[in-house]
Model the fold of this input.
Amino acid sequence: MATLQIRLSDDLKARADELFVSLGLDTSTAVRIFLTSAIENGGLPFPVRRRSIPAELRDAIRDARNRENLNGPYGAAREAVEAMLEE
Done:
């Protein structure tokens, strides 16, 4: 039998352990299930894709990076809120 070692943050390990225990599994069993399913599927057993960013947010990010279509600067938060409410 082989041993698999991986490095991950303590927080990720603790959260995964907590999830798997709630499902009646230990982490080793969950990893075996994942690997078995990957082999049976000939790849990852779930779709891997980039998160879709809404067009409005993508445009805002582009504008911020290009320093275009910006409002402000504002002297106070109240001014910024008023400007947002105008649109």
Q: What stands out?
A: The chain is about 55% helix and 0% strand. Residues 55-86 form one domain. Residues 27-41 form the longest helix (15 residues). Residues 76 and 82 are 10 Å apart (CA to CA).
